[in-house]
Specification:
Length: about 150
């Protein structure tokens, strides 16, 4: 995956994530080349690509799960030298795709586990429709029976 994005006008200090020259891969196999990305505070983006295009590699590099080169700034702080745990403590979290959850626990309990190391834990469970946690019968949903379990 190779991309270059020019900074967007009007965002300035509202940039939450700023990536420049990101390169990463596995062993001797490069996957990302000179990736640039800017995400403003409150902005929602989608990364779309075919299988093996580098989407997961990008997420793993940004969350510091795999080594990379380039510049990664999160909330104005350079994070490429930090460990995955340190980046997590800053608030950058990778939510796995699919249903890699505790499937016997409720959706609510999965969200609490995900927020367990956050200082603002009470803010994580914002007002969510009661349908998210209970089915039409009123029974509490388990994560294995619910598609909606990731909250940003």
């Amino acid at each position: 995956m190779s991309a270059a994005a020019a900074p967007r006008a009007g965002h300035g200090s509202d940039i939450l994530l700023d990536v420049a020259g990101l390169a990463a891969g596995y062993g001797g196999m490069p996957v990302l080349h000179d990736l640039a990305l800017e995400v403003a505070r409150g902005e929602i983006i989608a990364v779309v690509g075919s299988n093996a295009a580098g989407k997961t590699t990008m997420l793993r590099a940004l969350s510091r799960v795999i080594p990379c080169s380039g510049t990664i700034r999160f909330q104005g702080r350079e994070i490429q030298a930090l460990s995955a745990n340190e980046v997590f403590r800053l608030g950058m979290v990778q939510v796995p795709e699919g249903r890699q959850l505790f499937d016997r626990m409720t959706v609510h309990d999965n969200l609490l586990i995900g927020a367990s190391r956050r200082n603002d834990r009470s803010d994580v469970l914002v007002t969510v429709s009661s349908d998210t946690f209970t089915g039409s019968s009123g029974a509490t949903k388990t994560a294995s029976s619910c598609n909606t379990s990731a909250v940003a």
